[in-house]
Amino acid sequence: MAVITGEKEYFKGIAQIKYEGPETDNALAYRWYDAGKKIGGKTMKEHLRFAVAYWHSFCGNGADPFGEPTHLYPWNEKADAVGRAKDKMDAAFEFIGKLDLPYYCFHDVDVVDYSNDVVDNEKRLQALVNYASEKQAASGVQLLWCTANLFSNRRYMNGAATNPDFHVLTHAAAQVKAALDATIALGGQNYVFWGGREGYMSLLNTNMRREQEHLARFLHTAKDYARRQGFKGAFFIEPKPCEPTKHQYDYDAATVISFLRQYDLMEDFKLNLEVNHATLAGHTFTHELQVAVDAGMLGSMDANRGDYQNGWDTDQFPNNINELVETMLIVLEGGGFRGGGINFDAKRRRNSTDMADLFHAHIGGIDCFARALLVADKILQHGEYAKIRKERYASFDSGKGAAFEKGGLSLEDLREYAIAGGEPRVTSGRQEYLENLINRFI
Ligand code: XUL
Ligand code: CO
User: Fold this and answer.
1) Which residues contact 248 (CB under 8 A, 6 or more apart)?
2) Is the CATH code 2.60.120.260 the one for domain 38-381?
3) Ligand 2 ion: Cβ-proximal residues, 5 Å cutoff
4) Domain-wise residue ranges, the chain
5) What's this model's pTM, rounded to 2 decimal places?
6) Considering only CA atoms, which residue is closest to atom 8 of ligand 1?
């Protein structure tokens, strides 16, 4: 992959990040991510499909509710919006090229600032789509997914597709149309809907059923438009239980799958699961992944982690190898992503203010996933992990258990079996043994 810079080099002094192996002392090198290394017939690059998130890395400025920005970007200097946006895109492609990653993801308003003028916004986005096309062609970087930001502007405070005011819904539609056009023009592989404000704060003012019907109609309308324009990629819904809205309609994987099934959207939509959203929903991330895999709906992943000591979406970079090994076990056993990849929806901390910190953050996350992939593959090759789980259900593999699975036994038959067999034996779930088995390979 080519590193391309624009008028100026933004990340000076940082060269292309290369694989140097676990023993290297170079902090700006990969210890585990060896893009071309083959694991089970696919390269690491093909398994992991890493993407850089535009919003955290090139827009988020470190500000929090208590303090002003701490990340002062040199690409934010020009007065005109399109000029500023091109500088930012130069920085983004330089960064992605230096990390040698295959993909990026963005919201419409990440690549260029939006005003309140629909037609002007379309023109601005179009200008940046043209610029991005050239950059993609020159670098080989591709668009994993695009989305429309339907939550920051104050017009969306009561929802976008679920807003009680039809006029607001039409503005959301205009934004989605332009973002879909951008996705198609850039050969984007998928399109994401994250419903930041699609939920409610109080039932006293909310017709929940009607709002959910509007959301489904909106998704059908957007999907039909994109398909008419020839878009072949997948649509993803990204579940999140709360924050910013108290009750969100896309609470978790199970809720979203049931919504998609109810409104006949299963064919075109899959899930984009995010670690910190899972933990906010009171689930482990692996639970969410397994729910999606079991329904054939694992589309993509937003990689990050929360903080064990507080309860909001801190979007930290992943660094827990045990959790990631369990993650990669499910991804590998589930056959990988349906169209998506691993997008770092993560930000460096407010006080990580060196340009190099953006590299260290990504290198850490990338290496942890790569190492987890290697470990998970070894565990699966070794075979005992899968064998223990299979054997646990062996009583359903033959005889009456198999007949039950096929629907061949009545409640009376089950009672007869209970009496004939006497009291069942006590069988260990062997959790600690399995935890040790995983650690053996780390
Ligand atoms: C918010 C979040 C979003 C989506 C895209 O928590 O995860 O950044 O990934 O809108
Ligand atoms: Co996300």
Assistant:
1) 195, 198, 199, 240, 241, 242
2) no
3) 274, 302, 345
4) 38-381, 385-441
5) 0.97
6) 345
